[in-house]
Amino acid sequence: MKTIAPNLYVRGKVGSIYLRRRIPAALKLAYPANKKHETVCLHTCDVRVAKKRQNLEEVRIDAEFRRRLDELKKKQADRVIKRLDTMSDEVLNALADHWVRQVLWTDEKYLELDSEDEFEAKGVQMTEQRAELGRMLAMRRSDKILPAMHSFIHLCGLDINMSEEESKRAGAVFLTAVFKALDFRLKRQRGEAVQTEVVAPAAPTPKGVATAESDARTKLKTWDEAFAIWRDFVPGRPKSTAIATQTPYLELQRLAAENGIHSPSGVTPELMRQFVDQMSKRLMVVTLNERRAKLKSLFKVLMGKGVKWTPDLRQKFKIV
Fold first, then answer.
1. Would you say 91 and 213 are in contact if contact means Cβ atoms under 8 Å apart?
2. Which end of the chain has fewer CB atoms surrounding its CB within 10 Å, N or C?
3. Domain extents for the chain?
4. CA-to-CA separations, 128 to 123, 136, 171, 174, 190, in angstroms, rounded
5. Predicted model pTM
6. Which secondary-structure segment (H or E) carries 82?
7. Would you say 174 and 149 are in contact if contact means Cβ atoms under 8 Å apart?
């Protein structure tokens, strides 16, 4: 092998020219362990022609390196366990849907490999399982399914420290999903057409939903940031106006903190009802209405400025 230019060398009896690029260290895991270079034959013995073709191949190889790097980062991110303090309804529903899809997809693959005897034995076993699961559903006893649920949660890349009450709530939803998946498998066993992509289409994974929720929370504004957005919306806003609006705003912030709400984006209609009830006990009707109007105006500005809100701010306007 003779090097004739950077990344170019000659090999073989006829002197064919090859392009040779070293695989970056960051991409080692994306290739077989013994592969250290990306090598391409340029199908010429002419150095001038080879250099022209080299540019095109370099671009293609760089694109391939970027693609493999993106795939590697995604795989590494999927392996990272995401820790949650609690499981939202959206994450729980995604967990249930993901279970049904995975069970049906796996069942679909293995059915092709089963012998006649294995197929029949599997049908008897599933019928017995369905009877047992039916009794558990009727008695609302999800405790027996919890070990399987927690194992599946971990396989989905999540780590959740559940309370007994939350575990019971999640177990009830998960048990229903297990029963649903088993019913679909039994339909297949009876010869009915059950297409995985139809009854359990691809959807965001539990970890994907949890990550999206986490990302959304990081975009929410703090109380001070939200107030600053409103204050600066009108250049040269009089200080007295800012103070008059800040008074009910700070009261709402204190009440929210008492209820575990640490961002104005988390304010609920129920909290606003409680806030209005508290003000009505110590303020004149005229003053109360003025403060409600100030908060409503502030929230409208924030919504217009694209501040993230959950739940929907329009629901709050029915109260404010």
1. yes
2. N
3. 2-79, 82-206, 223-317
4. 9, 13, 21, 19, 15
5. 0.52
6. strand 82-84
7. yes
